[in-house]
Automatic annotation (TrEMBL):
Gene Ontology annotations of biological process type: mitochondrial proton-transporting ATP synthase complex assembly
PANTHER family (alphabetical): TRANSMEMBRANE PROTEIN 70, MITOCHONDRIAL (PTHR13281)
UniProt keyword Transmembrane helix, yes or no: yes
Protein name listed in UniProt: Transmembrane protein 70
GO cellular component, one term: mitochondrial membrane
Family: Belongs to the TMEM70 family.
Keywords: Membrane, Transmembrane, Transmembrane helix
Taxonomy of the source species: Eukaryota, Metazoa, Ecdysozoa, Arthropoda, Hexapoda
């Protein structure tokens, strides 16, 4: 492995997609069936591809997001404060009319009401991608990802590795896209890293061809121009 990396460093190979290089290195080590550490970034131990089927019976938890408790508390707190603020609006409105400063007080109440509505929505937009729990069903050979909806209720997303797409450039709080839904998973929180490798598709063969269609078209165009130049001479 060190020899491959040293040769690549000497010849300065440039891959158009760094994700392909990462998947290729993982694939090489994974197919060697050796148990070794890949890098400090991943710190993954590679096992046999059948381990997750042999060691799992029924539905088992394979992942837990450490921020689950904080996210749940934050969402409940924002919902309670927003509900209290909305319920207090009629009472505060009547007091504002009695005081005589209706215009100024109504403007303040409108701003407060706007915050009470938008705050839970904003928190939900940020945290809806966070996977709280991930389960593996050995009988069905499927995964179940849990997330929280706006009202802190658990949503389940059943999928297979074929439903997962890893974008070349991940967005904010997005590590993969499952059935068109962006989700956030962290490798270090998996109890068994082989599940992470399988879900992210690092156990699949990778096409290491450096030439893509655009490069091929450019090569054909250059060859045609060169032939025209020779014919003119």
């Amino acid at each position: 492995m060190a020899l491959i990396l040293s040769v690549c460093a000497q010849k300065r190979f440039f891959f158009e997609n760094f994700g392909n290089l990462r998947r290729a290195l993982i694939y090489i080590m994974y197919n060697d069936c050796t148990v070794e550490k890949f890098s400090a970034a991943y710190n993954v131990k590679y096992l046999s591809t059948n381990n997750y089927q042999e060691n799992s019976v029924g539905k088992t938890e394979i992942y837990y997001g450490t921020l689950t408790g904080q996210i749940k508390t934050l969402k409940i707190f924002s919902l309670l404060t927003s509900t209290g603020g909305l319920l207090a609006q009629p009472f505060l409105y009547s007091k504002a009319i009695e005081s005589g400063n209706t215009g100024a007080v109504l403007g303040i109440f409108a701003f407060i009401g706007f915050l009470t509505i938008t705050t839970p929505l904003l928190i939900h937009i940020i945290t809806k991608k966070y996977v709280t729990h991930l389960y593996y069903d050995a009988k069905e050979d499927k995964y179940i990802a849990n997330t929280y909806n706006l009202f802190v209720q658990t949503k389940e997303l059943v999928f297979t590795p074929n439903d997962v797409v890893v974008p070349s450039v991940t967005g904010m709080f997005t590590s993969c896209i499952i059935k068109g839904i962006p989700l956030f998973l962290e490798q270090k929180f998996f109890y068994d890293s082989t599940h992470y490798i399988r879900i992210m598709g690092y156990d699949k063969p990778v096409d290491l061809k450096l030439n893509n269609k655009n490069t091929l078209n450019q090569t054909v165009t250059m060859d045609a121009e060169y032939k025209d130049h020779i014919n003119k001479k």
